[in-house]
Amino acid sequence: MTALLETRGVWQRFGGLVANSDVSISVGRGEIVGLIGPNGAGKSTLFNLIAGVLPPTQGSIWFDGEDVTNMPAAERCQRGVGRTFQVVKSFETMTVIDNVIVGALVRNTVMREARRKAHEVLEFTGLAARAEVLASDLVPAEKRRLEVARALATEPKLLLLDEVLTGLTPTEAQTGVALVRKVRDAGITVLMVEHVMEIVMPLVDRAIVLDLGKVLVEGNPTEVVRDPKVISAYLGDRHAVGA
Amino acid sequence: MDKTFAARRRRDLIIAAVLAALAALAPLLIKDVYVQNILILTLMYAALSQSWNILSGYCGQISLGHALYFGIGAYTTELLFTKFGVLPWFGMLAGGVIAAVIAMGLGYPFFRLRGHYFVIATIVIAEIGLLLFQNWEWAGAAMGITIPVRGDSWLKFQFMRSKLPYFYFALALCSLAWFVTWWLEDSKWGFWWRAVKDNPEAAESLGVVVFNSKMGAAAVSAFLVAVGGAFYAQFLAYIDPESVMGFQFSLLMALPAVLGGIGTLWGPVLGAAILIPMTELTRSYIGGSGRGVDLIVYGALIVLISLALPQGLVSLFSRTKAKGATR
What we know:
Number of helices of chain A: 10
Distance between the termini of chain B: 14 Å
Order of helices and strands of chain B: HHHHHEHHHHEHHHHH
Helix content of chain A: 25-40%
Largest sheet of chain B: 2 strands, antiparallel
Strand content of chain A: 15-25%
Largest sheet of chain A: 6 strands, mixed
Shape of chain A: globular
Number of domains of chain B: 1
CATH topology of chain B: ABC transporter involved in vitamin B12 uptake, BtuC
Structural class of chain B: mainly alpha
Strand order of the largest sheet of chain A: 7-8-9-4-10-11
Helix content of chain B: over 70%
CATH architecture of chain B: Orthogonal Bundle
Strand content of chain B: under 5%
Largest interface: A-B, 37 and 28 residues
CATH class of chain B: Mainly Alpha
Radius of gyration of chain A: 18 Å
Number of helices of chain B: 14
Number of strands of chain B: 2
Oligomer: heterodimer
Structural class of chain A: alpha/beta
């Protein structure tokens, strides 16, 4: 079976800056894959290329056996790519349920069905009690959760999570981890960008480490964290020698 | 929760029906032509503001150039009537369609602009439209068009003896604009528009084609405003560029919605019900002889309300209710 998502030799340049160089990764169906790396490694850029915010300078992106390289974000969402934003982008003047209905409308054209789907997703994500609250009145952890709920309402095959666990308290992060597991158990493939290693590593099936725009290491999370190249990328060469 | 939502929608519909019925009875009590005139203008501006609110309130694309569509509705109707003998009812529809097409044609380049730049573009385009009509000989140029009197008839939508038919048409138009908004509010388009207003990037990631959403809002909004323009032309029985396409119309469409509550179902009606009579009354009682006191009072009230209630007057009703429901 082919991978659900594949990037083939993707390059992204912003003027003289090379954010991604020759990145080829693949995500299989049903996997939770972590995309990690130090600040400025090109994680967010790659993430945006996959979500369709902009097309890559070079290379191609394949989703579900189809070349989606130049497909705009809205169309990718219809094909089954859901995403969250690192800096939350809630619809602030709308209630929580209305936020989620926007996502649910992708696959439900009848309002009543979209509303029912949205309620279902709120139950699933533990936001049901906050349905009628304005998104602007949510606390940060709830806003992150709403991002996930909204994306889930589009019934994606692939869910792209951009630092949903970053900046949360340990308890909040644990609830977040449980939610991601639940999403995967519902049959949705997850690709998540994170830089808090201790949270992501136990969660993901596979980790891809980016550094300076390139894939540095890829593999089983326990091996990846011991890899000298990864340690030196995160902490500098001095620490890698001892390892 | 679904129940309260459905109940809220039903309650809005019932209130609107009751208000419309009461308004329909008003002329039985109010025989004064001057007051009737104010009522007609109030209903018309409520309808226009409600239509403006679809693009600028719900979808968040602030237009200060809607006078263009108003004028197009007026001119299409009267040009077709005076030059080709087409009944105003067909002219009204044609005006609406032409305005909607022009709105989408203009949206094509301008919906790429954001925020203030979009607003500026709408003002400029409406001014260009005004200049074109002022110089278009065939359309009467600055002299305008006088609508020939053919006697009172619904067929020609022309009444000299009584203002009541105009009143009922304005009421019907206002009800229509309100109902269209009510209906769109709980539709895919309504949700898309609010999402586009709040955060276009997030909307796009949820499968909303932002550009098409804006185009749809522009078309509906322009269509209804042009129908209002056609009505106004028949009501005045005379049009010239300044009196149907002047900048003041763009303002008078935006202000009631802003005052009442932009992007809300009831805001435009509430705003128009306060603003339009006040404009007329201050003008006749304390205005006159060019002192401009009416404008000072008028301006002061708008400043006061925008400072005290930035969400508009409807927030007086909804804010407490929302708190009670959630906390």
